[in-house]
Amino acid sequence: MTPLVFVHGFMGGSDQWQKQDTLGVGRDLIRVDLPGFGKNAHLPPVNSIADFANWVLSEITVERFDLLGHSMGGMIVQEMVRRAPERVERLILYGTGAVGVLPGRFEPIETSMHRAKDEGANATARRIAATWFLQREKAEPYPECAAIAEASTLPAILAGLEAMQNWSGVDHLPQIACPTLIVWGDSDRTYAWPQIEQLWQDIPTSNLAVIPNAAHAVHMERPRLFNQLIEGFLAHA
Fold first, then answer.
1. Which Pfam families does this UniProt record tie to the protein (predicted)?
2. Where are the beta strands (DSSP E) in the chain?
3. Fold assignment, 4-236
4. Global pTM?
């Protein structure tokens, strides 16, 4: 089977995909850690979505792959398809959108920048990670997710926010030609429905899956349903 590449979102890391191990039956799973985050928190941070995309493409040694991007990672994978469409067989855009400035986000990016400077990296990681779950800090996966987010340094947090703030992929959506699945939790506090609808309407090859009773981290809140959707798409697209 075609390898599946996971690209995590802002303050994420490869360890957050452990509940997706079942997707590795018969295929290789390639779970990257972006520079400045997760296991690559020691690397210099990157402050543009384009540079993130180029970095991931340079790290993947297989020629062709399926590609899943979450949140900021969804922006990155859109840029990867733009730069190397011949390498991507199938695309999964999960909890993401086509613009970095997010109308309806739980707080504006500028506010996140100011609060990160005032509160510090660890407090910012815990506070933002809580918004990814329907039950916030009370969610069972929250401690694990917050611990991964806490690996992020303050420079990486600010660089990631800057990268999102300065990015738009709207004009490229009609050029995405590979089969595409859009996945969204209906209680996502970061990406509102109009951003999801734009992906669904503007990508000619897209299908949409809306997960009920889930927020921004569907893959950790409702992993069985999430995995079934991904497996079904990869098997039949």
1. Abhydrolase_1
2. 4-7, 29-31, 65-70, 88-94, 180-185, 206-211
3. Rossmann fold (3.40.50)
4. 0.95
